[in-house]
UniProtKB/TrEMBL annotation:
Full protein name: Adenylylsulfate reductase, alpha subunit
Domain Fumarate reductase/succinate dehydrogenase flavoprotein-like C-terminal: residue ranges: 532-627
Domain of life: Bacteria
Organism for this UniProt entry: Desulfofervidus auxilii
Molecular function via GO: electron transfer activity; flavin adenine dinucleotide binding; succinate dehydrogenase activity
Domain FAD-dependent oxidoreductase 2 FAD-binding, residue spans: 12-252
Gene Ontology biological process terms, A to Z: anaerobic respiration
Record flagged with keyword Oxidoreductase: yes
Pfam families xref list: FAD_binding_2, Succ_DH_flav_C
Cofactor entry: FAD
Gene3D superfamilies documented for this protein: FAD/NAD(P)-binding domain, Succinate dehydrogenase/fumarate reductase flavoprotein, catalytic domain
Amino acid sequence: MADFEVVEVNTDLLIIGGGMAACGAAVEAKYWAGDDIKVTLVDKAALERSGAVAQGLSAINTYIGMSGRAAPAVGEESGQHTPEKFVHYVRQDLMGIVREDLVYDVARHVDSSVHLFEKWGLPIWKTEDGKYVREGTWQIMINGESYKCIVAEAAKNALGEENIIERVFVVKLLLDEKVPNRIAGAVGFSVRENKFYYFKAKAIICVCGGAVHIFRPRSTGEGYGRAWYPPWNAGSTYSMMLEVGAPMVNMECRFVPARYKDGYGPVGAWFLLFKAYATNAFDENYVQTRKPDLEKYAPYGTTKPVPTCLRNHAMMLDMFEGKFPIFMRTEAAMQKILSENPKRAKHLEAEAWEDFLDMTVSQAVLWAAENVEPEKVKSEIMPSEPYLMGSHSGANGAWCCGPDDLMPEEYKADFPGGYNRMTTVEGLFTAGDGVGASAHKFSSGSHAEGRLAAKAAIKYILDHKDFEPSPRGSVEELKAQVYKPLKTFEENKNYTSDPNVNPNYIRPKGFVFRLNKIMDEYAGGIGWQYTTSEPALLRGLEKLQVLKEDADKLAAETLHELMRAWENYHRLLTAECHMRHLLYRKETRWPGYYYRSDYPDMDEQNWRKFVLSKLNPDTGEWEMFERPYVPLID
Ligand code: FAD
């Protein structure tokens, strides 16, 4: 095996990840840190095009507009958008379970991140009187192909290129060996060079996004790898924080996006900006016809806007009855706009295509390949496989401290220091997809939350000036652990004539197929129409245990495959956490995201509360526990 140089990085604040939350954290941390506190950022990819916004976006989905810079949404007057209303909206969309203090905190800060984006050069659509064009009540339109490049450039300028380490995959966080429950460092490896990275840090912000390819995707064969969520976020945030003992919350509240079929193109602009509607194969508008089916989910099912999961539910009920395919009526929406304003024809066509070209180029390619002219024909949409994430319309993530002026008394004992967005592990912070029970942050809210976490992390470092990190485990042991899959491959590769089939190891590709199959069949994937039950989950957990044993035999031929191996390990732990949460919550709270066949109804009286999980870092045992729901606003 090759020699691997050890690169030791001593820093004060380590930001792990290079996405929206990380870039926000970088800018804010540097502001408060000045030149005395060292801030380092490490990303598995290249900052300019990494994370969920890598390809760009066509809309900023969270903008409150308290400064009056945005046009009012249709049917509303200027100034009607407030953090209180935003909390109400998010709570409604998440079927009554959100950390209202965290959501409020994002809402009151998010506009400033958007104003920074504009200052840094992001083109935001404007009305004739110079206001931001609203896509929907909380969203604004952008020319966002270069969104991530612009946000990354600001982060780079703030930290300095010498403090940004790219193409290093972080494998695990390290607790301190002297101070209990205290973060002290992390280890990772370069995916391009023979370099092992050993980080010592006084505080860490772990922001590696959510998790994709936990479940078997709809894309198979030549399309495998195409997913709605970026395939490069593999649950590192959740698994690494779990392994050091940080509790997770709402890990059962996964997200199933309904998107254009096969290309996973966004539907937001079509529903909100172009006012399109969707119908089943028999031209029935399922959101209308299925209204009575949503009544049993009152108050959420009877209030507008209809929650995302219930819109899925209405569509799925039709699909389960065989009334598919489901279509977005692009042709009807465009013809209506054109009949009102024929001069807009060219402009409208450009907007429709740009929506895809800004953020999901493959959907534009697919439309072109299938001769789709959206003004003439309807287009198929489909609920996708489930994803785990905390910043979009799912709410997975860590149990975190809220701001001291808003966090309910009932949670304060979990966070004695009161540092905003710190987990229960001392010095370990998160944001974006990493913070649980606080959905609908999207790109702008994740950036704003990264800034909030960074400000608190710098305060934490200043308040604990004397702390000298001494991470658990020797460098040699950690290095051996990280590179073990390379060794396993090298030692056993000649055992069989086909290196993909070997009794002594499993390659990452085979491993992810096995994980996907288990999750699909036992945890309510697409193959089982999103349905699971206690017996299925218990059987699935047994199967995951066997897979866990085999994880020890993951093998990698190259550094790139080594990354695939560790991604799968992160997926595995995230998947187990998800299953344990599905098992614990004895109701169907989010129909359209998943169904418990043994508890098919929502149980508002007994289950309007938070479910938490914790992995003991010393024993490896799981503990499930609860926290009460505490409302902040009416
Ligand atoms: P990300 O931005 O995804 O960043 C994660 C970072 O972690 C990446 O840099 C990645 O390289 C790094 N990383 C991962 N694992 C490791 C590891 N082990 N070691 C080191 N680094 C690692 N928001 C909007 O406002 N408008 C939209 O239209 C919109 N559309 C979306 C469409 C899609 C398909 C998706 C997935 C999201 C969309 N969002 C949108 C939401 C927005 O993209 C996310 O909310 C936001 O990017 C989350 O920020 P984050 O920093 O938590 O994660």
